[in-house]
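Researcher: Re-running this chain for the archive, since the previous output was lost when a drive failed. Same request as before.
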Amino acid sequence: MKPTDLFTDLNDFQEYTDGLTADTTYAQLGPSITTVVNATVLPMVTAQVYIALADAAAPEEGDTEEEKAAKERALEGKELLKTAVAAGAMLQYQIFASVKKNGSEGSLYKYQHEEIKDHYREALWGAMDQLLELLDANPTIGDFEKTDEYKERQELPVKNAREFDRYYGIGASSFFYHKVLFLIRQVWRSDVKPLLPKEPTEEMTELAKEALCYKVVALAVMQFDVTELPRAIRWDYNHEYTKGSDPQTRSSLYAQLIARFNSDAATLENLKRSASGVTAVGMNNNREENKYYGVL
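Model: Regenerated structure tokens:
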């Protein structure tokens, strides 16, 4: 199916978003719908899940209670999918809508343009968060549980956004969690897992999860555009940072997060040495955490 087939017409599209100008046609929105589906939605939910949600239908007479419940969950997912796609499409289309408006008798101030974009961005994030949470809670929808991503997540120490949020506040955003899954895999395998013994204690496991989340956010801060970070991160820091591009501010935030990761990593190494029975004699005295300084 084509991405634009998700909506029957412009009236259907308008039920899931606002702000359309009177001269906008559904054909004009088509490229923006296609872009948000291909670039944002499909990489996270897969084409099979997308089609299952788009084709979801209401329960019928003769359905068992289990079938009715499954169809109702799929319909809920379809509503969230349509909301996410409509909001994302309007976000994509804003530059063209602004150009049209500025070429007419009306005009749009830059701050108004940014506020409109923020409105659609928040709507997109909210709908994607809810949709991904729904799929996590009901992984049989569109065989989501059979996707490589879902299977691999079961092998990771932090399996979902709400668990990630326990160690670093991301507003429990499933959308952000899925964006950084590749970083979670990378940091866990190369930077955190090697710090643990074969049978870590509960304290070690908790510390390893915290270290993992801090380094993932640190890397995301440097690699992602500020608009790709969840509100919980963007708004936790100064207003200059939320504007988005000052490299010194990004570097300062990165340094804070990496410092916390390094502290956790050093503690993990000490715990690992203690658990293996390594004494102070066997320790590397050249390591920074094994030095002390005095005043003469």
